[in-house]
Design goal:
By secondary structure, the chain is α/β, with parallel strands linked by helices. Helices cover 46% and strands 11% of the residues. Strand 2, helix 3 and strand 3 form a beta-alpha-beta unit.
């Protein structure tokens, strides 16, 4: 097994690099085999637990993780298989569906800002503010000018979050059209998954080329150093989990977190505690 040392960084979108979004790239594993990938993922999950503890102790920064993808792309699976490594006391998971009620009387980023992570914590967006760009683009509810305006809104919003101490990492879970068909059919074949199937999934599947075009435009237009996009080959769930756990681990390790100084004199406290044994 030959694995390139910078394999994870090759998934990052830079400039107009859209070759990552093609049917051929959905099964790329960069030299990993299933068993080796699972062992590495387990090590990554252990590291994530420790890194989250460090983030909480530091309490000067936060982490925002964005998950996007086509229906049946595996977003829930990532939350279940990877992010359960985090302590739930310091983690929130938010799913943004179509705006409703009070949300419709505000700008589209209003509800998103309220769900962003506080200092020392991690927030996962299982679908995100990008839904308010992708879906209207596909359904042609936005003019090209409005699309560009919303891209700029999001770039400015994410820059503000970054400048205020939030590290952002964004994942597009990339599966092939055939793989989506298999997963949708599996929902119909399994009585315990029937509830996950929606007839709306079929209507959206017919718009596959439009979604592909929208994803390409958005990830290349909003991938920047402080908020990069990574396109994750997600046909193989084991590689998907490996790649995301590796990138999140690397992101946390690069956040220059510090342990806070103790509020007591350690040796004095040690002597006092020994007296109470």
């Amino acid at each position: 097994m030959t694995i390139h040392p910078t394999w994870a960084s090759q998934l990052r979108v830079k400039g107009s690099k859209t070759s990552l979004i093609s049917d051929a790239s959905t099964e790329e594993t960069y030299g990993w085999d299933k068993e080796s990938a699972k062992r590495k993922t387990e090590k990554n999950l252990q590291a994530l637990e420790d890194l989250q503890h460090h983030l909480y102790a530091d309490s000067s920064k936060s982490l925002l993780i964005v998950l996007q993808g086509i229906d049946a792309g595996g977003k829930d699976g990532v939350v279940r298989n990877v992010f359960t490594a985090f302590n739930p006391q310091g983690t929130t998971v938010t799913s943004f569906k179509a705006p409703a009620g009070r949300e419709t009387s505000h700008d589209y980023l209003w509800r998103v800002h309220a769900a962003c992570p506080s200092k020392g914590s991690i927030a996962v967006f299982n679908r995100s503010h990008y839904e308010d760009l992708i879906v209207p683009m596909v359904h042609k509810r936005l003019t090209p000018r409005r699309v560009e305006e919303r891209c700029q809104h999001i770039r400015d919003f994410e820059l503000m979050l970054s400048q205020e101490g939030t590290k952002i990492v964004k994942f597009l879970l990339h599966i092939s059209r055939d793989e989506q068909w298999e997963r949708l059919m599996a929902r119909l074949d399994d009585p315990h998954k029937n509830w996950k199937f929606s007839m709306g999934d079929l209507a959206e599947r017919e718009r596959w080329p439009l979604y592909t075009a929208a994803f390409k435009k958005i990830v290349t237009g909003t991938s920047v150093d402080h908020a990069p996009w990574y396109v994750i080959p997600a046909n193989y769930k084991w590689f998907r989990d490996l790649a995301i756990s590796e990138i999140v681990k690397n992101t946390l390790e690069g956040m220059s977190m510090r342990w806070p100084k103790p509020s007591i004199e350690v040796e004095t406290a040690r002597r006092a505690l020994k007296k109470l044994k």
